[in-house]
Amino acid sequence: MTISQARPLLSPEEIAVRAGQQVPHLHMPERFDVFSARETRLRQHAASHAMQDFLVFAAELAHAQHQALQAYPAVALPDAAALDAARGTAQAPLPAALWSRDPLWRSALRTMLDNLLPRLANNPAQAVVQELQQMSDQEMELQADRLLNNIMFGLNLAIAPLIAAGLQVYWTHMLLATVAARGDDRLAPFGRIGDSTRCPCCGSLPTASVSRVDGEGNYRYLHCSLCSLQWHMVRIKCSHCESTKGIHYHSLQAAGDTASTNAVSKEAIEVETCDECNHYLKIVRIERDTAVEPVADDLSSVILDLLISEAGYQRHGVSLLLLFGDPEAASNDDGGGG
């Protein structure tokens, strides 16, 4: 892995803010491509990947998510009073762990599973899909509660990615529907919350961060693991403890690459580590590869997680489609996940 040291300089975002320039705080997912772009990127990675079977399964799952989102049923949304209350207290208006889920999310998930199953011919994942199809509504809700509250005890790790996929579509739809209902005041419900390391919409942890090209600069956004909202956080700043000290970047170097290990990495997928709190989060760089997609690139770079974990760092964030953990033990670590 190559490592570059943090620069003791202001980030471009901080310079822009001091100069009075506007850095967009939020980037909303788009209904027409949030999951289809993920599917495309997963298939691209799967073509020559050691985890080909899993990435193809994840691509098929993203395909089913895309279909579900295009025709999602009308579900209960927060009213104006609830949105104003959340904004007034700097809380997420659609909190993952506290939101009273509309039962229609289960119906949408079951339809999604019906569409997914025939696309998994001769795939071991068929049995897992069928197991979830036969699960009672009560047990499905219990699994969802465990997943959204990061409780590993009793969580079925085999079906968790499917439950997560249904919840991702549900929360993405609620986000987009809430925005659409606000008209000209569309972004008002989703401002800054008390914890800038968590999603301003649902309070979830990010999966990864993404370096976006906006106007004349590149700015870093955290990508929500649940609703796919992206929110701005300045670069060279820990996404867990928000320290600007001891920040390093790591990337995989291809075998035979003779480039200096002291050179700045040009890889599109990197890991940002913090020596102050020993946490890390991946960052994908659109300026180096316009096809990057945070969830897909996170799944395809598990080897980075393994190497960084062996070096003693703990992940800030979660991939809901690839969880790690002991199902017999409860996890109370708010930086948990796979």
Tell me what you see in this structure.
The structure is a single chain. The chain is of the alpha+beta class and 338 residues long. The protein is 35% helix and 14% strand. It is built from 10 helices and 9 strands. The protein has helices spanning 12-18, 36-46, 52-70, 80-88, 104-116, 125-133, 137-148, 160-181, 294-299, 302-310, and strands spanning 2-5, 26-27, 206-214, 217-224, 230-232, 247-251, 269-274, 279-285, 314-315. Strands 1, 2, 3, 4, 5, 6, 7, 8 and 9 form a 9-stranded mixed sheet that branches. Strand 7 (269-274) and strand 8 form a beta hairpin. Helix 7 crosses helix 8 (160-181). The longest helix is centred in the middle third of the chain and has 22 residues, at 160-181. It is globular. The two termini are 21 Å apart. Residues 1-9, 15-20, 254-264 and 326-338 have low confidence and may be disordered.
